[in-house]
Write a structure and sequence with these properties.
The complex is a heterodimer of chains A (about 120) and B (about 110). Chain A starts with a strand and ends with a strand. In chain A, strand 4 and strand 5 form a beta hairpin. Chain A has no helices and 11 strands. With about 120 residues, chain A is mainly β. By secondary structure, chain B is mainly β. Helices cover about 0% and strands about 60% of the residues of chain B. Chain B contains no helices and 11 strands. Chain B starts with a strand and ends with a strand. In chain B, about 35% of the residues are buried. Classes of the chains: A mainly beta (about 120), B mainly beta (about 110). At the A-B interface, strand 5, strand 9 and strand 10 of A face strand 5 and strand 9 of B.
Chain lengths: ~120, ~110
């Protein structure tokens, strides 16, 4: 079974530029999560999707961050414009149906550096 | 929201030693999980343990929900155990992660 795929693995941009990350969850997983992990801290949930609907985006900085999961499968997270403090690892995870988020399978992450 | 504190922040062990990692949380939870993040950044779920005790090989975990803490035990540590161990909890919503315990096991 293929795991959660993310791309790119690394990205370096200058502040005020825009950037997009892509995630393809495990086949059949209805729930998809985007986390932000700043160096030295635990992951922080940015947004949770159930199929193509948003379940929780309370910690997403909506003035600059956006995410979509149009067909209920893969997802894109965008930052526009980026700030220095957005430098972090962006992790995508997915859970099987009816799992209540108990088992989250994480992708390898995208490491973003904003200069 | 729920606060999660993990201790110790860092731990260095010789291969073969045992260790105990602690997670304290500020409110009642219905979901508590332990994760391992390897040096390459990959996060793996170790245990789902909102209460009670579980064991998986050299790892075991105990959660005392009434006293709001959980312990992760690593026995006969190996170099491949190195990485960061996270505790994550939730009440009825999303997981909140602690800052983790960074473990280095030297040969």
């Amino acid at each position: 079974e293929a795991g959660v795929a993310q791309s790119p693995r690394y990205k370096i941009i200058e502040k005020r530029q825009s950037v997009a990350f892509w995630c393809n969850p495990i086949s059949g997983h209805a729930t998809l999560y985007w986390y932000q992990q700043i160096l030295g801290q635990g992951p922080k949930l940015l947004i949770q999707f159930q199929n193509n609907g948003v379940v929780d985006d309370s910690q997403l900085p909506k003035d600059r961050f956006s995410a979509e999961r149009l067909k209920g499968v893969d997802s894109t997270l965008k930052i526009q414009p980026a700030k220095l403090e957005d430098s972090a690892v962006y992790l995508c995870a997915s859970s099987p149906p009816r799992d209540r988020g108990i088992t989250q399978y994480f992708g390898p992450g995208t490491r973003l550096l904003v200069l | 929201g729920i606060q999660v504190e993990q201790s110790p922040p860092d731990l260095i062990l010789q291969e073969g030693a045992n260790s105990t990692l602690r997670c304290n949380f500020s409110d009642s939870v219905n979901n508590l999980q332990w994760f391992h993040q390897n040096p390459w950044g990959q996060l793996i779920n170790l245990f789902y343990i909102p209460s009670g005790t579980k064991q998986n090989g050299r790892l075991s975990a105990t959660t005392v929900a009434t006293e709001r803490y959980s312990l992760l035990y690593i026995s006969s540590s190996q170099t491949t155990d190195s990485g960061v161990y996270f505790c994550a909890v939730s009440g009825y919503s999303t997981l909140t992660f602690g800052k983790g315990t960074m473990l280095l096991v030297s040969p």
